[in-house]
Amino acid sequence: MAARKDKILVIGASGQIGVELTLALRKIYGNAQVIASDLREENPLLKDTGPYVSLDVMNKEMLHVQVIRQNITQIYLLAAMLSATGEKNPHLAWHLNMQGLLNVLDIAREEQLHKVYWPSSIAVFGPTSPKQSCPQQTIIEPTTVYGISKYAGEFWCNYYHTRFGIDVRSLRYPGLISYKSLPGGGTTDYAVEIYQEALVNGSYKCYLKPDTYLPMMYMPDALRATLELMEAPAQALSVRTSYNIAGMSFSPTEIAASIQKYLPDFSIQYQADYRQAIAESWPQSIDDAVANADWGWKPAFDLDKMTVDMLTHHPENKGRKIH
Ligand code: NAD
Ligand code: SER
Known about the structure:
Bound molecules: nicotinamide-adenine-dinucleotide, serine
CATH architecture of the largest domain: 3-Layer(aba) Sandwich
Distance between the termini: 42 Å
Number of domains: 2
């Protein structure tokens, strides 16, 4: 198959998604065909699984040299500053999230890369978007710098596709939950921390209010969605900004109750901080009918199924039986 001959560069490979996506791509394409890269050091989970280069996506020349030297044909761009950290450094977030993407799109055009993947986020939506089953096309007025940068990025992707024919594809990920690599400063990170704290301390202090519902997704679903989108025939894709995808929606009260089914002594306390306002600006659930119609997207994990898997495989489990 021609696609398997592709040589892939993952930028931001040491991050929460990057580690697992790099490993998943290496399974499909072969270890040597997937170059992991990041500004920070190689994540220990990637060590000895394939090539790694140190790379700053903001340094366009260095990036261009790597793309030529390594005969890269596809780029997965994961380097970004997320919502909570972005509010502390708005200009830096805008600069990294925009210039990083433009550098990649320009090089994709100059080197005629086969495909580019760049994730957007449910953070594109704002307080005026529908709260429930937020559709693909609706009012979109983001209030975080992260959301503004993602929405602008979506239109840059669409522009490079229509103007220059770049096959760039994108998903609006919900909050992602995983146990392998730690999250990097998002508003949804509580839903990762809570499992770790439940296993280590038996309690968790949550920075969101108990009834704050947000769209979420377990990492295996997010990886599968990414790979399925990238494998879909180009003519099937009607969205070249970014696809809505849904997994599940829950509140801190509900995820705590799910954990208590398996760890009955677990307790949760609440102390809301600045992230509450960010969470309240986003929809509570997402309508992904277009992704389903175009390339067959369907999530596999609900809250309890994820909880069992997280608690069972989490590195802090230490041999506990979860059932
Ligand atoms: P992360 O913060 O865990 O990882 C990002 C990685 O990029 C880090 O390893 C960081 O060192 C690297 N990086 C930062 N600046 C860089 C630079 N200048 N050059 C090269 N590498 C650099 O983020 P993540 O959660 O893995 O997110 C990956 C992508 O998915 C981002 O675009 C993010 O907006 C998007 N996304 C994530 C979530 C989520 O819940 N994790 C949800 C929606 C969208
Ligand atoms: N998980 C991300 C965040 O909270 C959503 O894009 O920033």
